[in-house]
Amino acid sequence: MRQIRTLGLLGTGVIGGGWAARAMHFGIDVVAADVKPQMEQWIREAVANAEPALARLTLAPLPPKGQLSFTTDLHEMARKADFIQENIPEQLELKQRVLADVSRSAPADVIIASSTSGLMPSDLQAKMIAPERLLVGHPFNPVYLLPLVELVGGKQTSPATIEAARKFYTYIGMHALHVRREVPGHLTDRLQEAIWREILHMINEGVATTGELDESIIYGPGLRWAAMGTNLIYHLAGGESGMRHMLHQFGPCLKWPWTKLEAPELTEELIDRMVKGTQEQAGGRSIRELERLRDDYLVAIQQVLRQYNIGAGATLRALEQRLYVDQAAAQSAAGPAGNAALPPLTGEVRPEWIDYNGHMTDSRYQQAFGDALDALCRRVGIDEEYHARVGMYYTVESHTTHHAELRAGEPYYVETRVLAVDDKRLRVFHSLRRTRDAVVAATGEHMHLHVGVGSGKTVAAPAQVRTQLERIRDAEASKPLPPQAGRAIGQPPVRD
Ligand SMILES: NC(=O)c1ccc[n+]([C@@H]2O[C@H](COP(=O)([O-])OP(=O)(O)OC[C@H]3O[C@@H](n4cnc5c(N)ncnc54)[C@H](O)[C@@H]3O)[C@@H](O)[C@H]2O)c1
Known about the structure:
The chain is an alpha/beta fold. It is 43% helix and 18% strand. It folds into three domains: 6-186, NAD(P)-binding Rossmann-like Domain (Rossmann fold, 3-Layer(aba) Sandwich); 189-284, N-(1-d-carboxylethyl)-l-norvaline Dehydrogenase, domain 2 (Orthogonal Bundle), CATH 1.10.1040; 336-475, Hotdog Thioesterase (Thiol Ester Dehydrase, Chain A).
């Protein structure tokens, strides 16, 4: 399957906008196509609105942001895209017709995924050219923050299509859940609909308000669901004998008429109650305000789950590892072959790194130096496996000097020198330069100690790591020391 550099979007509403923001954030170009020309402004705003929350999701180094272009010509999009994601309204005949049409312009090795919430892929691919490249890739709103995407193949979908789509979605930070049999509503919407149906019944019967029903979830099951689903949670609820006990104890209740399978009639009165209830819950806050609140807590939850390496937090960790590995690979590729000296680590000052004075804030210099140390470590074989089995370098002393300003969007690069290395110690010097004029904006000098896993004590680094660090040190040993190396703060010590 081809390498995916450009994502084509068919339909640029709520879901198309979310796909654009996610893909561009992780360096993929987007060609967005919609029948309505006014959707160009909408999608540009949607991408801009998503960026503040997305930008806080991870500190891992990101590739340059992807570019967005817009067209009303679906065929132009289909000719340019390496992967197409369809997000037009949920109507089978419309989707069938448009997918068939687009499949005539998209080369046969371009995968076409549908965001459909519940239509069957076998129906969607019926009239397409090369139908084996169609699958359902069902995301969740907001697509740019929720990692889940359900992958569903139809009767004609090839296993290679599912595999290639899984690879692409994982690359842009998602958790691809393969739904093994196509069923209407896939997995998640079937479960969500069951809850929604019960909500409508209880509102209809005047049992509770929309707010009370939401409380019944957010203070209880909702908190559990972020990391463990209903099944594992019920297994825990059954005590030592787990799910078996749970089913013996509560199984018979399932036969009681607690829930109803048929949805209630959507009368005007029921619709009014739902609308009035949710407006009261919104309490005068606009949709945009509520979206920002939702985005903020979705980022925070994923960062907490990351510490436990569970659910969406595990997806985030895996994404970060991939980003660090890619950065190190890009750095190695940039360096001249066979040269032990380190190639510079490149980056760009992201808008959220800016201080109140309009320049890059102090902590981001430490991050840039930390990224450069990480790249150095990876170059000498210190990776996740090494961290888990051997140890890592801890920072024990740092000294930063600042010389010039960096503005939002400015490209920069970090040159790293190994000044000294022995069994346990590693002394590293970084110069962060502005790309536009090669001026040194800041320097960072750090002493690191090699600490063993488990013991938490300083231990000698393995010989092969040391040898490589020595090679890197020796490659620049004939150069004079940078003037800032070994400096302390310039003012004479304060005397009482
Ligand atoms: N909204 C959600 O929460 C959600 C979640 C997951 C999946 N989905 C699915 O995503 C799809 C899109 O949903 P949405 O909420 O973004 O809808 P939407 O109404 O916001 O956007 C649909 C867009 O498609 C465009 N369009 C219509 N006909 C077109 C055509 N022939 N060619 C190109 N563009 C065309 C419209 O102009 C519009 O901009 C649906 O299949 C839906 O089931 C929605």
